[in-house]
Amino acid sequence: MELNKLDSNIKSHNNHNYFQDIIKKVSSYDSNIKKNVLTQALEFSRERHSEQKRDSGDPYFFHPLAVANILADYKLDWISIATALLHDTVEDGVASRAEIRKLFGAEIARLVDGVTKLSKIETPHIELREAENFRKFLLAMSKDIRVLLVKLADRLHNMRTISHIDSVDRRIRISRETLDVYAPLAARIGMQNMREELEDVAFAEVNSSIRKSLNKRIQFLRSQDDQLVKKITREIKHKFKLNNKIIQIQGREKSIYSIWKKMQKSSIPFENISDIYAFRIICDDINECYSALGIIHNIWPMIPGRFKDYISTPKSNGYSSIHTNVIGPLGRPIEIQIRTQKMHELNEYGIAAHWFYKEKDSVPIKPAKVSLNLFKEFSEIIGNSSGADDLLSHSKMEMYSDQVFCFSPKGEVITMPKSATPIDFAFAVHSKLGETCVGCKINGRSAPLQTILSNGDQVEILRSNSQSPQASWLNYTVTGKARSYINKFIRNNDRNEFIKLGRSILENNFILKNKQFHDKLVDPILKQMFYKSRRSLFFALGKGEINSEEILNILLPKKLNKNNILNINNNKKNKGISIKGLKPGVAIHMGECCYPLFGERIVGLMTEGKGITVHTLDCATLERYTDNPELWVDLTWNTKNSENNVGRINITITNKRGSLNTLTQIIADLGGNITNFLINQRSTDFFQLSLDIEVNNAKHLNEIITGLRTNLSVYEVTRAKENYN
User: How many CB atoms lie within 10 A of CB 506?
Assistant: First the structure.
């Protein structure tokens, strides 16, 4: 399949003849073509764009015609060609979605709608607007890959004609967007030809001086021996002929942009780039590929660390080839790629190549699973992202990533970006496995979840149904899929916590008034207080955006007592909101001024946007809020709170050998676990320390304090009542 670059100036062609050439191309590979529909699409587009001009001054209609030609060169189906002819009609407002659907059918209308650039979105911040456009674009393309292919062809023609744009800032903005979004997308679906052209044109706009400098360096090398590529090609052919092998071989200089990226990535000067020249050997089958590799390594020395076998472990976009770097003919370092003809076409044209491969029944085969993984991940990221900017960052993670190959216990290859951890691996295998991950084994040995994976690692994920994603996982995950799932769980969990808390607050206030509470009671006031549902009202109350007094003033106006605080000293049982089921750090926060522990008498303070902060009843902080009784919430402990309580102590010990060891040993012997450790002051005689200790309850902490006081190394130990300094 040979791509013909379209002359951006179609004025030199007869439009009708040019369109007929496109029809001939499509007819040569798509037997289902509907020429009448394509002709109708052509005339519709020509008519609707008749009043529009491009920056070059040419009729706008030249653009959709050029996009259609690009897609025809890639042998896309006739429906994609029709979409290309119509793709700007809705965006420019010259046609409606309903009109396209009526004239050309639901499928073409859906594709045209997906390709529409959505530039009319009103968003105050330009980056957020671009992110929102990107979100909607990804959503559309994840449903049908052809949306992306049409969009890429659209961008390719726009880049070929970018020189006609007068504004330098606009050219640079479009080029940066091309390098940031479209070229990586083309790469991820294996369309290397398109990616290279997009990169080269965009690079010329963004870094024109650097490109000119690199081009001069390459021209200088070329001037020293302008026949170098041909000489090396002949030498390789000759060596294979001596081994009774006849091969196809292609030689080329690598693109300027790829050389520039390698210089940046490896922080090396131009002179140290070892593989400016690349050669492709095309073999009949896979066995011949490995046979060719043996011949090459037998003749020329391999450069250590520069061998990659993407046949046995293809890239995530389906790319398959053997890469090796050798000191080749004439003593030149060169890269040699070895592949079959089918691999070559799939590598060059990516997912588009699947449209012209036929099965026996002449039906186009479905794209390989590996090529669609990206879009499956994009779909999941779209569903899990909280906003457009969040989506943009997660999606870029998926597009920009050098890869490592890891294995499941069953031998399945999982492709991961560099710096990935077992958490990323678990989510890559299945979202449920990621959500319930509690540990891992790497190459048969237990390892921390934050371990960075290496090529060839076999990873076994240990799971528990009682586990759920942790916020701390975000510190050591790099894939967009993992991070989007974790963030989604945290958001949902946080909301549920605040809803649960808000309902409990309201229920408790009703109990104080000797009234029975049920959820339906709030229905009449939802509209009055501008809330759409009970859950949204409970959420606002739990988060402190409103207080319970506002609600009670409406629901119980006659019997409302201004001071709605339960007397903490009464002996009635089951009064107050139970902390049961509310997770510390979300809707419930333990006061860092008094460090309340299970068993102590406690009270809560409402904080807007945060929920409830728990304090001990004797905490000095409470004095600041004596004039704000509406912010006070009575609380009770639940038996589950007896686990994993953290208390803080301040301790002064003698500065001598073994003191710290004695200190930690006493705490361990008494069943405590040190979770945090801070040296506040150190002198020649004493250490002043603050320790966070995991205990069962307040009594347990007092036992540890008493035990420490019995040791001669301990000068003083007290319960902490202030923050770390």
Answer: 23
CATH architecture of 220-355: 2-Layer Sandwich (3.30)
Catalytic residue among 21, 55, 58, 91: 91
The Cα-based distances of 182 to 72, 178, 254, 316, 384 in angstroms read: 20, 5, 20, 17, 22
Please tell me which residue in 21, 55, 58, 92 is annotated as part of the active site. 92
Residue 317's closest CA among 380, 373, 378, 401? 373
Domain boundaries 10-211, corresponding CATH code: 1.10.3210.10
Taking 50 as the pLDDT cut, the residues of the chain under it are 1-13, 117-129, 131-132, 358-372, 374, 381-392, 394-401, 559-575, 580-581, 723-725
Give residues with Cβ within 8 angstroms of 95, minimum separation 6: 44, 48, 86, 89
**Token couple for 702:** 């007092």
Q: Which residues contact 116 (CB under 8 A, 6 or more apart)?
A: 87, 90, 91
92 is an active site residue: yes
CA separation for the pair 131, 393 (Å, rounded): 9
Q: Which pLDDT does position 483 carry in this prediction?
A: 85
Closest CA to 467 of 427, 421, 432: 432
Residue 632, phi then psi, degrees to nearest 5: -85, 140
Provide the token pair at 531.
């809330």
Q: Is 619 helix (H, G, I), strand (E, B) or coil?
A: coil
Buried b (16+ CB within 10 A) or exposed e, 374-412: bbebbebbbebbeebbbbbebbebbbebeebbbbeeeee
DSSP state at residue 83: H
Helices 422-429, 480-512: crossing angle, 10 deg rounding: 90
Among candidate residues 600, 598, 591, 605, the one with its CA nearest the CA of residue 633: 605
Partners of residue 682 on adjacent β-strands: 687
In the Cβ-directed half-sphere of 485, how many Cα atoms lie within 13 Å? 26
pLDDT at 423: 93
220-355 and 644-719 share one fold: no
Alpha helices in 304-416 (DSSP H): 341-349, 369-384, 388-399
Q: Is 587 exposed, middle or buried (0-12, 13-18, 19+ CB in 10 A)?
A: buried
pLDDT of residue 238: 87
Q: CB under 8 Å to 494, separation ≥6 — which residues?
A: 586, 587
**What CATH class does 644-719 carry?**
alpha beta
169: its two tokens: 């800032």
Specify the pTM.
0.55
Cβ burial 552-574 (10 Å sphere, 16+ → b, else e): beebeeeeeeeebbbeeeeeeee
95/100 Cα distance (integer angstroms): 7
Q: Which residues of 518-550 are buried (b: 16+ CB within 10 A; e: fewer)?
A: eeebbeeeeeeeebeebbbbbbbbbbbebbbee
| Residues ≥6 apart with Cβ < 8 Å to 671 | 695, 696, 700
| Domain spans in the chain, listed from the N-terminal domain onward | 10-211, 220-355, 402-478, 489-641, 644-719
pLDDT in tens, 651-679: 998 888 888 888 888 898 888 898 888 88
Q: What is the pLDDT of residue 586?
A: 56
CATH, domain range 402-478: 3.10.20.30
Q: How many CB atoms lie within 10 A of CB 583?
A: 13
SS3 176: helix
pLDDT at 122: 33
